[in-house]
């Protein structure tokens, strides 16, 4: 894409009122725009990053047999009354009134929708197990929307719901999902700093698990066992003051950003909606359920919190909006032709390129914008490169010069 055609622009200053690193850099670099507290527009660059994050998650969910659906955002009050959460979750529910006094909620989660949906298709043990998922916007009336994309009132969520004939099958799938999540973190370059954390199981089970990315700016307090790469959330540290796996009591206190969670719901929602199946003996049994969430928009924010320097963002290759940022620092016709040649050659090879062809900004501004935007590899061509190309990785200090055709032939 030619940067002169990009309708958005970088900003010279950080947005007023933003204190989190992710919001400051993403707004300044032109990835997102703040509409109001906790609500952001994803601009072209930001949407490219978000889509890449979501597609990585989608790949891994498909790989373990989950089937993608898309459920409504507007949900009837009756379903929430059935589970008692119309009042129990009243503090975060966005409630709407429709015609003739009908009431609705904007979905913060979808157990109340997916359970009666599945009830239409499950009758026998032969219909189990299976799992469905969606990637969708969710809405929660946060009292203190803060930290940019880390805690919003509208946010993106991948939620999987699994359905099983017995607890053993639920536990087996739970472990498969845990391994799938590890692949997601690896592909996002977060695997070395993301830990599986024991957390409260609420009314579902003794424990659930969170996935916390270690970051000084994270709002969650966790205690880590470096030996087992497991941890405990602060909310249950007094119930479990040692590593649940090896018993290690020398736990390290850290801050983290929750990027995912997994729960064994068991029969909590199947009981509310009478979701049953008939076993081989002809007896009716409640279906066992699990739910598994990842926050794609929160991950975008977490990536910026983790991968940045004093100049801007350092995107991992897998989610960067472009792989190359080509910058022309000359006004001569010959150099402009060379820049266009490089751009077209890279496009013909299927590479993603942001070409800074702007003629209304200074050379210094172009280089500052490149550091701010954070594309993994910067390509500079100028009068000084003399028929060569200057190649610099965003996370490296020094650039290298290479012949244009030589470099293009191996990249």
Automatic annotation (TrEMBL):
Reactions listed under catalytic activity: tRNA(Pro) + L-proline + ATP = L-prolyl-tRNA(Pro) + AMP + diphosphate
Record-listed E.C. numbers: 6.1.1.15
Coiled coil: none
Gene3D superfamilies assigned: Anticodon-binding domain, Bira Bifunctional Protein, Domain 2
Transmembrane segments: none
Enzyme class at the top of the EC tree: ligase
Residues covered by the Aminoacyl-transfer RNA synthetases class-II family profile domain: 38-316
Pfam families in UniProt: HGTP_anticodon (PF03129), tRNA-synt_2b (PF00587)
PROSITE patterns: AA_TRNA_LIGASE_II (PS50862)
Tree of life domain: Bacteria
Gene Ontology molecular function terms on file: ATP binding; proline-tRNA ligase activity
Keywords: Aminoacyl-tRNA synthetase, ATP-binding, Ligase, Nucleotide-binding, Protein biosynthesis
InterPro entries associated with the record: aa-tRNA-synt_IIb, aa-tRNA-synth_II, aa-tRNA-synth_II/BPL/LPL, Anticodon-bd, Anticodon-bd_dom_sf, Pro-tRNA-ligase_IIa, Pro-tRNA_synthetase, ProRS_anticodon_short
GO biological process: prolyl-tRNA aminoacylation
Cellular component annotations (GO), alphabetically ordered: cytosol
Protein name: Proline--tRNA ligase
